[in-house]
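testing teh design pipeline on a random one, pls ignore if ur not involved
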C-alpha cells in the first residue's frame, strides 16, 4: 500500500483560489486522493458512530495523511474540529485497541494556506506568533495519536497570488507531497497512552 490521503477542509471550495489550485495539482499525483470534507459534511456535523466507521476505514487505508485547510483566525476551519471530535475520539478513546492503535505510525502533514505574508508570523510581525506556535494544538493531536509529524507545508499571501505565482505554489505543493511520500520516520511503538481511555 502506498496511498496519500488528503483531507481538504475548506468552508467553500467553490470560492477558493489557493486551496482549489493546490488540490487540483495534488489530484494529478498517482496514489493520491483528495477528499473535499465540506462536500462530505455540508451541514458541518460529523457523527462518531453514523459517520465514524467510514472515516476510520478511510484513514486506516492510507499510508500517510495530509490535512489541508486555509488558516482562519489562527486556527483551522470548524469542520476540522468537528472531524477530530467525532473521528479521533472514536478511534483513540472508544475503539483505541481496534482502530487507534492501528492508525498510530501513519505520518501526518499539515498543508495550510495563510492570507498574511510570512513576515507577519513571528515576534515583531503583525501576528506575533510563529506558524509553528499556531500549529501547536495539531502537533499535540499528532503526538497523542502517535502520528509522526512532518514539517507543515504553508502557502503565505494566499489571497494575493498572481496566476503565475499560484501555478508555482501548486508545483511546490506537488514537490512537498512527493517529499512527504518519500519520508520514512522511525516506527512508532504503540504506547500505553494510545490505548488509555481517558473517560470519554
Ligand atoms: C474567517 C477568516 C479568517 C481568516 N483568518 C486568517 C488568519 O488568522 N491568518 C491568515 O494569515 N489569514 C487568515 N484568513 C485568510 C485566509 O487564510 C485566506 O483567505 C485563505 O488561505 C486563502 O485560501 P483560499 O483561496 O483557498 O480560500 C482568514 C480568512 C477568513 C475568511
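output:
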Amino acid at each position: 500500500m502506498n496511498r496519500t490521503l488528503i483531507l481538504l477542509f475548506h468552508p467553500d471550495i467553490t470560492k477558493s483560489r489557493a486551496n482549489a489550485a493546490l488540490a487540483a495539482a495534488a489530484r494529478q499525483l498517482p496514489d493520491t486522493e483528495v477528499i473535499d470534507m465540506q462536500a462530505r459534511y455540508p451541514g458541518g456535523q460529523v457523527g462518531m458512530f453514523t459517520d465514524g466507521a467510514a472515516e476510520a476505514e478511510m484513514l486506516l487505508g492510507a499510508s500517510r495523511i495530509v490535512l489541508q485547510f486555509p488558516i482562519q483566525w489562527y486556527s483551522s476551519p470548524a469542520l476540522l474540529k468537528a472531524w477530530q471530535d467525532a473521528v479521533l475520539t472514536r478511534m483513540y478513546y472508544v475503539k483505541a485497541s481496534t482502530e487507534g492503535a492501528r492508525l498510530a505510525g501513519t505520518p501526518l502533514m499539515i498543508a495550510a494556506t495563510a492570507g498574511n505574508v510570512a513576515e507577519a508570523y513571528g515576534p515583531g510581525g503583525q501576528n506575533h506568533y510563529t506558524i509553528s506556535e499556531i500549529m501547536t494544538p495539531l502537533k499535540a493531536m499528532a503526538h497523542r495519536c502517535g502520528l509522526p509529524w512532518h514539517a507543515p507545508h504553508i502557502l503565505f499571501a494566499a489571497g494575493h497570488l498572481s496566476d503565475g505565482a499560484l501555478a508555482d505554489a501548486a508545483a511546490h505543493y506537488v514537490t512537498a507531497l512527493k517529499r512527504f511520500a518519500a519520508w520514512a520516520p522511525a516506527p512508532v511503538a504503540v504506547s500505553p497512552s494510545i490505548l488509555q481511555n481517558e473517560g470519554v
